[in-house]
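Minutes, project check-in

Agenda point 3 was the complex the collaborators sent over. CS summarized: two entities, 539 residues total, and the question is how they sit relative to each other. Sequences were read into the notes so everyone works from the same version.
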Amino acid sequence: MAALHFHNVTLGYDRHPAVHHLSGEIARGALVAVIGPNGAGKSTLLRGIVGILRPLDGSIHLGGLDARDIAYLPQSAEIDRSFPISVFDFVGTGLWREAGLFGGIGKAARAKILRAIASVGLNGFENRPIGTLSGGQMQRVLFARVLLQDASLIVLDEPFNAIDSKTTTDLLALVKHWHGEGRTVLAALHDMEMVRTHFTETLVLARGPVAWGPTAEVLTPENLMVAMRMCEAFDDTAAACGEDGRSQAA
Amino acid sequence: MVYDALIGPFTEFEFMRRALAAVIALSLAGAPIGVFLMLRRMSLVGDAMAHAILPGAAIGFLLSGLNLFAMTAGGLIAGFAVAILAGVVARSTGLKEDASLATFYLASLALGVTIVSIKGTNIDLLHVLFGNILAMDDQTLLVVAFNATVTLLVLAVIYRPLVIESVDPLFLRTVSRAGGPAHLAFLALVVINLVNGFQALGTLLAVGLMILPAGIARFWSRDLTAMICIAVVAAAISGYAGLVLSFQTRIPSGPAIILVATVLYIVSVLFGRVGGIVRQLFPGRHLEA
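CS then shared the predicted structure for the full assembly.
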């Protein structure tokens, strides 16, 4: 059973494709790394999956999932860190699916929030305003919120950028825990070593898919070279694309 | 003595009692809105919107003279039109909301002053620009109280999405579609409260009882709930003290209220617990951890 199904998807901005003719599927419960150089379309693909960017062409099927079954951790969150909100309340917003607009946050929910904060190692930070946290602590807070969202598909965009090794280890353990619970996890990553050791499946993206499959087979120097050489083409005078997508999926 | 100065005016004169009731209603509803305006970095948007109300109020004035009810209705219509148009333009074109608002409000202000000048005198123009809380009749007071009540009810309904949209708009977009409607409802509340303030303080100062208390609250707390409470209290104190000041000194009521709020603001900037200047200059010895 596929959690995600791409039908010849093209995603981009202003008609210019950033992800070009992607087809394929991701099995439920898969732990997938999306790698590729800057500008390869990793973030664009993830934005398409969570539904904040509509495909220019083709379609993405969520295999019966609702938008609320997806937890998304963007690369550069537009979070206003100066807003007066505590770690507890901020993490608590992860309960949106249960609580919605008006639902109360009862005793059970409070306990859940506290557990989530504890499981990212931030006990004692509950009442701190988010503006006082370090970068790594903020990333832990965001992971705690993803945890509370209890989503069956978790999408992480470069979650370990500018994060120290201790925090990375802790948060990676959480990712593997999610995988163990049968959730589908997709992460855009740059650390090849991490991908090789921890992720079962890898998509090498360079606008179009360069390779896609079991990490050991896909993560070859040849594939990475191809991805590196991809041109970051954005041509103002580009003609309309007539290609049907089959030739790209080499 | 003290009784005569501080309480006497209100027991003696009905217009002072009405004015006091009006400023308290304005404080209860306007100050929380002001806190959100400030936190969403929309303080000047609120100011812009205040001017946008003018042509509507002016058309009301044109049709029925200095009738606060007609002016209120006109102001509401104009304010909503500008708020929604600016919001729609911003959301559908990627132009920042403040930029699109600036265009709309400049046009509105010019139009409004033109309309008032066509029919009215300079006194009318002064009234429109600076308001007159002492001229409040029962009907107007009821309108003000009604608007304040509606504001608090709606704010309670949109509170959660509004807070989340202020902190992390992208997150709200991925879990819910409530962000857009909540934002529009908030803009509507801003307009309602500006029209409310317009009765008392005029188009130029209406935003004062919203923004100044919010600025004051920022210097005393890092907690949203506490900030809202502090802002309400600061607004009410400014309103009361401003009325007393106006009564005793013949300073016009609107400017008197805003001046008192300004004094509170300066005190807060200097001595506030959160980021006040004195606190920054003499922070005490640093802590161990």
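Noted in discussion: Chain B touches chain A through 22 residues (CB under 8 Å).
Follow-up: revisit at the next meeting once the mutant set is ready.
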